[in-house]
Each structure stands twice: as structure tokens, then as C-alpha cells.
Design brief:
It contains eight helices and nine strands. By secondary structure, it is of the alpha/beta class. It has one domain: Ribokinase (UDP-N-acetylmuramoyl-L-alanine:D-glutamate ligase), CATH 3.40.1190. A nine-stranded mixed beta sheet has the order 3-2-1-4-5-6-7-8-9, sandwiched between helices. A hairpin with an 8-residue loop joins strand 7 and strand 8. Helix 2 packs parallel to helix 3 and helix 7 packs across helix 8. Bound molecules: adenosine-5'-triphosphate and 4-amino-5-hydroxymethyl-2-methylpyrimidine. 4-amino-5-hydroxymethyl-2-methylpyrimidine binds next to strand 1, strand 2 and helix 7. GO terms for molecular function: ATP binding; hydroxymethylpyrimidine kinase activity; phosphomethylpyrimidine kinase activity. It catalyses: 4-amino-2-methyl-5-(phosphooxymethyl)pyrimidine + ATP = 4-amino-2-methyl-5-(diphosphooxymethyl)pyrimidine + ADP; 4-amino-5-hydroxymethyl-2-methylpyrimidine + ATP = 4-amino-2-methyl-5-(phosphooxymethyl)pyrimidine + ADP + H(+). It comes from Ruminococcus flavefaciens 007c. Keywords: ATP-binding, Kinase, Nucleotide-binding, Thiamine biosynthesis, Transferase.
Length: 268
């Protein structure tokens, strides 16, 4: 069985972060492992607390995983602070990790900040340089490319700027702000649009985490990057289309929508 590792924060309400990543990887047919960067006290309406692990303990988790079950792909999500980012980059280089998907998480859907302001620079300098692909939404792409984005053409320019500067592929997600759920992949000079149908569902807690984990799972299974993004978009569309409605805010998606059979049955 192929394997994938998520390096991210825990979301106590289960819709984003580590919990979304493990559900997504499992549903996409790979064995999921996790290294936790921080605990969040969080629900669909917001984040009320953050407790970071120490850099030493994050390093111990990464050593434990890499020296035993080598991941075929790695996804990073909430990385929180300067010191944690440096450890992650160092360990990914040390173990020559492959298929690294960096979701440059900055602000949760609910509006709460998930990375220290000064750590954004470290994320650029350390994590983007080891990434195979980075998956910014529009506000994140604006910060990473240092420009404002108001059109499809701007998305292409921003993705190319980020890709050339950091030597990685870039998936710029239009979903939130600009267009229908159309995402743009810049991969070594080649441009591919993934045109998704916008699903009229306000429950989008954890969409970014879910998409990047689905991409990592497909890379782990040996699909190329374009095919991995295409398959990940199909998975997230299926999870959104279930119209799960939990919680008082922007709720989570139905990660296990494709699960049928004995163990997914409810009581009569
Ligand atoms: N309503 C929707 N219908 C269909 N696809 C959507 C919808 N909303 C988001 N997506 C898709 O979900 C994926 C994640 O994009 P999104 O822009 O929501 O990420 P994000 O802003 O990083 O998420 P998060 O808020 O979890 O950090 C993209 O492929 C996007 O096109
Ligand atoms: C722990 C965690 N990571 C990422 C996100 C982004 O959606 C979130 N809300 N919580």
C-alpha cells in the first residue's frame, strides 16, 4: 500500500487540518500518517485557542515516521511558526522526501490567523524551496507573488512568478474569491486550467486541506501532477455535493461520501 504523511495542525471539530487530511488520504486509498505541529481548539465558527508543539517534539515525530514507514508523498498544512517551519524543511531535506505538497495555510475559512506574521517569510524561504507543488488560494497567492489578483490573467502571472522564484509547480485556487471553482496549475511553464462546477454549498470548512491531501494521495499512488489535481478536484466536488450541514458556521464536508458497504450502514 502506498503511504502519505501530513504535517499539519489538529482541528478539534474534525473538518480541517490533520483530521481532514487523514480522512482524505484514507478515502483516496493510501495509508495515512501524521506529524502534529499544533493543537487548535476550533469549531465551525472559529478558533479559540492554539497550542504549538515544541520544535524538538515535531522533529521527533518526523524522525519516527521517516525511519520506519517512508511516505510516498508529504503534505504540509498549518505550520504556525518560524522554528517549526525550519525543522520541517530540514527534515524533508535530510530524508530526501518526495512528492511534497505545500498548502501555504495562513488564515482559516472562519477568519482566524494560523501562522505568525513573521513566519510567512520563513515559509517562502524554507518550505517553498523544497515543495514539489504549492497550493495557494487567491489571498495567499497575492502575498507570495507580491501582487493583487483580480482576473484569470492575474492568476497565471502570479502562479508563474511564484513557480519561477521557488522552482516548484503552483496550483492557484480561484474557488474562494474570483471565479467558479476554476483552479490554475503552472507546472514548469505549462499551464492547465481545472474548471470545476461551483457547488452551491456554504459548508467549505477544510476545503484547502482536503484538496492538498487528495493531490498528495494521488501523487503517492504514482499519478502525474495534472492527473492528481484532476482526481483531487473530482473527490472534493463529490464531498461538497453531499451537502452535509453540521455546526453553526461554515461546516465540514462529507469526506466519506464514497463509502458504501457494511461498515458505513446506520441503524434501521
Ligand atoms: N463551492 C465550491 N464548489 C466547488 N468547488 C469548490 C467550492 N469552494 C471551493 N472549491 C474548490 O475547493 C478547492 C479548495 O479551494 P479553496 O479556495 O476553498 O481553498 P482554501 O481557501 O485554501 O481553503 P481553506 O479555507 O480550507 O483554507 C479548490 O479546488 C476550489 O476550486
Ligand atoms: C488546524 C487547521 N489547519 C488548517 C485550516 C485551514 O482551513 C484550519 N482551519 N485548521
Amino acid at each position: 500500500m502506498k503511504t502519505a504523511l501530513t504535517i499539519a495542525g489538529s482541528d478539534s471539530c474534525g473538518g480541517a487540518g490533520i483530521q481532514a487530511d487523514i480522512k482524505t488520504m484514507t478515502m483516496n486509498g493510501v495509508y495515512a500518517m501524521s506529524a502534529v505541529t499544533a493543537l487548535t481548539a476550533q469549531n465551525t465558527t472559529g478558533v479559540t485557542g492554539i497550542m504549538e508543539v515544541t520544535p524538538e517534539f515535531l522533529a521527533m515525530q518526523l524522525d519516527a515516521v521517516f525511519t520506519d514507514i517512508r511516505p510516498d508523498a508529504v503534505k504540509t498544512g498549518m505550520v504556525s511558526s518560524d522554528k517549526l517551519i525550519r525543522i520541517i524543511a530540514e527534515k524533508l531535506r535530510q530524508y530526501k522526501a518526495e512528492n511534497i505538497v505545500v498548502d501555504p495555510v495562513m488564515v482559516a475559512t472562519s477568519g482566524s490567523r494560523l501562522i505568525a506574521e513573521e513566519a510567512v517569510e520563513t515559509l517562502r524561504l524554507e518550505l517553498l524551496l523544497v515543495a514539489s507543488v504549492v497550493t495557494p488560494n487567491i489571498p495567499e497567492a497575492e502575498i507570495l507573488a507580491d501582487m493583487s489578483i483580480t482576473s484569470d490573467k492575474d492568476m497565471i502571472t502570479a502562479a508563474e512568478t511564484i513557480g519561477r522564484k521557488y522552482g516548484c509547480a503552483v496550483l492557484c485556487k480561484g474557488g474562494h474569491s474570483l471565479n467558479d471553482a476554476n483552479d490554475l496549475l503552472w507546472n514548469n511553464g505549462n499551464i492547465t486550467w481545472f474548471r470545476g462546477k461551483r457547488i452551491d454549498n456554504p459548508n467549505t470548512h477544510g476545503t484547502g486541506c482536503t484538496l492538498s491531501s487528495a493531490i498528495a494521495s494521488n501523487l503517492a499512488k504514482g499519478f502525474g501532477l495534472e492527473k492528481s489535481v484532476e482526481r483531487a478536484k473530482e473527490y472534493i466536488s463529490g464531498a461538497l455535493a453531499e451537502m452535509l450541514d453540521l455546526g453553526k458556521g461554515s461546516g465540514p464536508m462529507a469526506h466519506a461520501f464514497a463509502l458504501t458497504g457494511e461498515f458505513s450502514k446506520t441503524a434501521e
